[in-house]
Amino acid sequence: MEKIVLPDIENLHQIDVYVENNGYKAVKKAFEQSTDDIIDQVKKSGLRGRGGAAFSAGLKWSFMPKTTDKPKYLCVNGDESEPGSFKDRQIFEYNPHQLIEGTLITCYAIGAKVAYVYIRGEYHKWIDLLQKAIDDAYEKGFVGEKMKETFGTEFYCDIYIHKGAGAYICGEESSLMNSIEGDRGYPRVKPPFPAQNGLWGNPTTINNVETITNVPKIIEKGWEWYAGIGEPKHPGTILFGVSGHVNKPGVYELPSGTLLTDIIYNHAGGVPGDKKILCVIPGGSSMPPLRGDQLDGVKMDAESLRDVGSAIGTGGIMVMDEDTDLVKVLARIAHFYHHESCGQCTPCREGTGWMEKVLKRILNDEGSSSDLDLLISIANNIEGNTVCALGEAAAWPVRFTIKRFRDYFEERVKKEITMPVKNKVHSMRQTAFPIADITK
Amino acid sequence: MSFNFTEENLEKIKQEFKKYPVKKPVVMKALYIGQEQNGFISNEVIKEVADLLDMPPEEVLGVVTFYTMYHQKPMGKYHIQVCTNVSCMLRGGYEIWDKVKDKLGIENMMVTDDSIFSLEEVECMGSCGTAPMIAVNEDYYENLSKEKVEEILESLKHTN
Question: Do A81 and B126 touch (CB under 8 A)?
């Protein structure tokens, strides 16, 4: 199988090696065509966003206004903070020039003069690696004003890296724009959408690093070729990051629609000690988990995963063996979303904290079975009531884990309600009594 | 305790202005540079950055408090960041965390008496495939075991 994003070519990160391997040819080919043609090809190729929502990339580009005097911008999202996802750093390290080439083609297609690559602050090393690649590309005349000479076009654009400083929420597109603008990284209310009102009020497109890196190959080899790889509705290869209880964790580039069991047992080498799988989160920590007995025949693409009640997300597969303490895992996930909630919307700011507290209570063997319903009720009250999708990201794991592992959680909670309260009068009202007495 | 950027750092910040149509987006980079020069982000650093970017100091403070990588108090020479998020946790992240805590004798966000080490429990650093991990200042140490962590901490202590 041919790899598109991370091909097995040694030293591909060096500009000379990249150029030798047909590098910066696709961008030349793109400049010979009209922008509408490029957008049309990407649309027909079926390329879908790799950042979580799996939205059609070509369609997103077509939302950019054609007739406007305002400057347009492209943001390349390399914030990559979703627990379980570690694919973009591979691109920065092993194939940065294809990312740069993809950025150039995208800028041309949407008419942007400036692209900002937003990379999370912790990735110091990878920021340096990409900056080196960008500097090399500038020097060779592939980026910046020199492009005019190199490619013989009127179009040119600049690529800058914007370094984050440690905030998960900045991976959300509107929050990312606020962060670039120098504000606190609060998500914005949509509409207006970024294509109308983005960076400094100008039309802006935000794409994931992996999405952009696919673009040059689509232009080079044609959309028909790309559309023929993997599942027809979600074509191309996907970078699957496998972590947790597997023998060979790592990033595997495979066609969409590859069987989940194939990825875990063949590519990632199976579970250590041949243990059974208790639970798999297929797309990063915010996606609904799958039970170990539910994995057979599950294909890794947006539609197939939706059918089994989960989502592709960022393709970060987290595998947990039968000895895993699922309550501990869920409490850790809840802690993460509580920590990362920006605090703008009350349901998320407060709800994530409540969920964490209740889960910690269960973890300390002080939970009662009504806590499970309480958790689901909190999750339901967060979902849909927040400005951005962090609300869903926090609510989904709690709601679906409890729903799908109810038996597991029931065993961890007591059947009676115990409310350890210090106030005497209050505690008289809340005396411990068996749950059966209430339901009688 | 006034704070002024060095000539060299001022030049670095001026270079950043070229990237954006307005001055304000440079605030994140300017704060990084200020933190590096001063060791942490004091009120004086905030004031200096605000003056430089024509921003109210309150807004700069708002940026500082939003992000976890800006520190408003001095950290150790080696800032040890241990990831305990799910992928690391499944592969022993908390054992590493306990080991580091034990070895340094400090809790989360504290600094050792000799100011050499400080400790922070961090969220996912993107090392899920090479878990568990710690980061020392800007460098990642991956695929760790308790023994390896001990070695790393020892060698840092001695190079000091």
Answer: yes
